[in-house]
Amino acid sequence: MSNGGMLARASAIFRSASGVIRALLCGLILAGCIAPLITRASQAEAETLDLASVLKGMDMAAAQFKSVTGNIEYTKVTVIVNDFSTERGKIFFEKAKGKLRVMLAFTDPAEKYVLFSSGKVSLYQPKIAEVHEFTLGKNQDLLEQFLLLGFGTNGTELQKSYQVSFKGRETLDGEAALRLDLIPRSQGVAVKLTRIELWLSPQTWQPLQQKFYEPSKDYLIARYRSLQQNTKIAGRNLQLPLRGKVKTTKH
Q1: 3-16 and 19-30 helices, crossing angle to 10°
Q2: Cross-strand partners of 184
Q3: Which domains occur in the chain, in start order?
Q4: How many Å is the Cα radius of gyration of the chain?
Q5: 216: nearest Cα among 111, 98, 80
Q6: What is the pLDDT of residues 109-164, one digit of tens each?
């Protein structure tokens, strides 16, 4: 099936999902991004940070990246009506032998799971006992770019996809952060995302927050807390927790 056909069939599912999930899935399938994780900077380095040193830290972090787990909070903002839609849960992210597996397990305000594995995106909503499965095909690379914004991709690769500028130090909920501004180089990405802001920890090079701007001026904020890197992830946390009879629809 063509990309247009797949998206047409998926539109009803996207409309029935929450604003945050809709934005996330559309962004994952149609947009792209990349980035970092792990390694410590000395105090002297922290006081002289510039774009080159931040990208170098990302390079070192990427070489050590295997997995990360933690708490996530996605907030979709629709500017014209000043609507804020927030979902909270956990992220389980593993990259092994070149293969990527990611589980987003939302618990608030509703239970739902988004699994990225083996070239597919699966959306499971226990309340209605349904799974919608999308084959990514040639969109696989764009999906991985989006998911890797802050997780395991080096600074050199980041610059290939974005015009990157270092905006200095900030604080997020009392945490020190380094802010990067990213402008997509690809016109295909730019029609979906005009700009991305990325906040990194200067101690671990893990992402603390991402902010994705759409041409409509709407935006999505992804906030990460209590991240633990390179820990063993139980297999059950990277599988859909199907319960009872579940209807599966493939697109």
Answers
A1: 160
A2: 162
A3: 3-250 (2.50.20.10)
A4: 18
A5: 80
A6: 999 999 999 889 999 999 999 999 998 876 766 666 666 688 887 888 889 989 99
Task: Give the global pTM.
Answer: 0.78
164 contacts 181 by C-beta, under 8 angstroms: yes
Question: How far is the C-alpha of 101 from the C-alpha of 91, rounded, in Å?
Answer: 11
DSSP per-residue string spanning 64-87? H--EEEEEEEEEEEEGGGTEEEEE
Contact, 60 vs 79, CB < 8 A? no
Tokens linked to 63: 């070489």
Residue type, 150: G
Separation of CA 63 from chain center: 19
Distances (CA, A) of 212 to 162, 181, 192, 222: 13, 10, 10, 8
